[in-house]
Amino acid sequence: MKRNETRSVQVDKLTIGGQNRVIMQSMCNTRTKHVKETVAQILALEQVGCELVRLAVIDMEDAEAIKEIKKQVHIPLVADIHYDYRLALACVASGIDKIRINPGNIGERKNVEAVVEACKEKHIPIRIGINSGSLEKDIHEAYGKPTAEGMIESAYRHVRILEDLDFHDIVLSFKSSDPLLCIEAYRLAAKTFPYPLHLGVTEAGTYIGSAIKSSMALGTLLNEGIGDTIRISVNGDPVDELTIVKQLLKCCKLRNNTPNLIACPTCGRTAWDMQPVVKEIEQFLQTIDCDINVAIMGCAVNGPGEAKHADIAIAGGNKEGLLIKKGKIIEKLPQDMMVSRLKAEILAFAKQHAS
After folding, report:
1. In the beta sheet, which residues pair with residue 323?
2. 306 labelled as ligand-binding?
3. What is the per-residue pLDDT across 309-318, written as a single tens digit (0 to 9) for each?
4. Global pTM?
């Protein structure tokens, strides 16, 4: 599926837009000034495939901490800034790779000019983030409620400021907690602006709620070729965001090197403690960068047949299970060996297909 054609924006060595690849990103929920905790969270995100991470910059301590954080991580960093242009300048001085700031909200024109000049000099792009819940007062009053048209009007005001300063390394987002409004706003944005779009449903809630809302809204847009970079917002551990986004991109045929875990829902025939095995293997697969189908089936009656299309599978029985590879039963295992053997087989498969 070909993406909607947009301008290419460079974020360090990453290219957003102008291609068929959708960049996966997340955001730390640590205080940026707490360097040790922030670095640990970024490294955990790297391990599960995150390509770009955003940091909240609330004060100068946060801005100055970016310099030390960058020394210890391996993916580009985005500074999330509201209202204070001096924080943007400090982040540029600290080596930030991208800035999220709305130029219409940082005061006098000279403030915007200072930020733009600094970003131009260091080739740092700016993301303009439009949220349906925080539109300008006059736009909200004109439309009476958050609308896609109002969000586009708000974006245009900010975009025009940057374009007037001959700045075009722009990324746009149009987020709402309403999935249908997200779809409408991004569709309209794709027709209106030449810039790459950052997809997201904001305030999407817990893991289950976010997975449903984000898959409904962002899956629709991705299948229409809209969207160049994506963040799934989850209340909790940001690593969970990557779990959802990787599967979403795989389902949309936009990411191939992602494992697929098949697990039956269980029924009265299930005679072994299946759930802990499924959970542990699901977590383990987040660290595997390979197109592999792994099946964990609840019984030996239907399991072998249902798992025949998997690369590696287990069909459980009474405290034991059958190890199956490419549809062929290889051996019988006691339950306490299932996890270690599955992990070993997955690693062997990944190594074989990486070479």
Report:
1. 314, 331
2. yes
3. 899 998 887 8
4. 0.90
